[in-house]
Amino acid sequence: MGALIPGGGALSMAMAAMDKSMGAKAMAEVTRSADRLVESAKSGGFRVTKEGADPIIKVLEEFIERAGRLSGELDVFNQEMELGNHDYGKLVSREMWKAANDERSARAALRSLRIILEKSREALLRASGQYQEQEDQAEDTFRGMGD
Predict the structure, then answer these.
(1) 20 domain residue, yes or no
(2) What contacts 124, CB < 8 A, 6 or more positions away?
């Protein structure tokens, strides 16, 4: 990618750093850890009081909502940008689209982050005995929408 941007050394370095710190493998491992946390909570492997879980759940829900908003803002990358009808503009546009949509993109990281946050929330709800209550409330909400 640095080859497309004259003197793009700083951008290339930033992309390499992001790849190492937030690469697909790292995000997959964190997701697996969140899955294990949910399974542990399901089996009673850990418990937490409602009072202890609620503030953390609230923060997780805020971040889940923020991630959803950010995801919507990144919809601008659903299409390639028009950067002219010349070969260089088409090449840059195509490469920008690929970078915005591949497994190392901010969009992919945001999707993974949201999944991790949701699983962490589920684990805390289960560990604090609030999961069924939340499921019932969601079901009531959807049932009311059909009226």
Answers:
(1) no
(2) 41, 48, 53, 56, 57, 60
